[in-house]
Backbone:
């Protein structure tokens, strides 16, 4: 009798756990279908469809992440933005669609041309640090940007941040992708991290700790699109 009760209790616990896992997995899809996809610009949908079969499509800015990026752009009425790093061009395309004036970005230009917003983008194909340093040579660029988005990872995050603090005005927004590094920041050590990700794992954790200890910035950290 006791064994039967024990088995029933275990089965009930497993079913409850399974239900919680399934519901948790269903939440992102619910958010996408309910509030993200219906408001996603058609040109962004086309770009997302175009890269769907790319072997590294998981690295692209997720549409819910894009919606999150769009909010401060609207609240700031951002007229001058800067982006460091790009893969498919989803985020700079979104930024250019939202911004009133210009986005300085590296991007695949075909969708930009199709959207007739090429005039909003100053495309710079280069390593990021020399470009940021060049901008800072002109004092007029200091505190002139409303918004910055960094789609990068690794040891240079700290260097990008110090330069962007000078370029982005007070009460502006600097947004970083990849700060959860595909959820691997929760793992106990490098031996637990996939070999393809371990090279930036320590740098990501160091950067997060640096940001927490920086009194010059306020930090909300959220996980939209962090499934890659």
Residues:
């Amino acid at each position: 009798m006791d064994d039967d009760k024990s088995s029933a209790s275990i089965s009930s616990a497993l079913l409850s756990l399974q239900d919680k896992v399934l519901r948790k997995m269903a939440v992102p899809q619910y958010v996408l279908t309910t509030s993200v996809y219906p408001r996603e610009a058609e040109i962004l949908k086309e770009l997302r469809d175009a890269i769907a079969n790319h072997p590294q499509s998981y690295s692209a800015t997720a549409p819910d992440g894009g919606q999150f990026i769009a909010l401060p752009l609207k609240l700031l009425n951002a007229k001058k933005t800067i982006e460091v790093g790009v893969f498919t061009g989803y985020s700079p395309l979104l930024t250019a669609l939202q911004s009133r004036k210009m986005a300085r970005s590296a991007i695949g230009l075909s969708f930009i041309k199709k959207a007739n917003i090429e005039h909003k983008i100053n495309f710079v194909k280069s390593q990021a640090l020399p470009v940021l340093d060049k901008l800072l040579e002109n004092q007029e660029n200091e505190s002139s940007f409303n918004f910055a988005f960094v789609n990068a990872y690794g040891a240079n995050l700290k260097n990008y941040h110090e330069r962007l603090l000078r370029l982005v005005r007070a009460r502006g927004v600097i947004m970083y992708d990849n700060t959860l590094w595909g959820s691997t920041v929760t793992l106990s050590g490098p031996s637990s991290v996939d070999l393809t990700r371990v090279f930036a794992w320590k740098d990501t954790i160091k950067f997060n700790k640096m940001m927490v200890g920086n009194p010059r910035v306020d930090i909300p950290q959220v996980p939209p699109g962090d499934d890659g």
